[in-house]
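Translate sequence into structure tokens.
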Amino acid sequence: MTANELFDKATTALSSAQLLLQAGDFDGTCNRAYYAMFDAARAALLIADGNESALAIKTHSGLIAAFSLRLVKTGRVTLALGKSFNKVEDLRLVADYKGDPVEIEQAQWAVNEAKVFVDALRLLSVV
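Result follows.
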């Protein structure tokens, strides 16, 4: 899979998150917002590493750790983006596994953060 294909997946997931938010499915919103960020992070790592090692990462925690180490700690991506990635993942875990209700404000925040994240990493990839 190429970085462009991953960014396309991220864009599709973001669109899905927005539709789910409008439909009132806040758990689904958080899930899709997180996966938009996940795929954008994979694309950014693929570009940053110049090889396919990002595609070999098998776990969510592994991807988040690699993103932090290779992009946030090196200053290529802001700390704020790294933190939002972690927080949206936390919301996804609540939505998908813990059964606690996700509030509309949290879902709206997740979609907004995902949009900022995907847009910022897309810009990073063309620099």
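Note: The mean pLDDT is 91.
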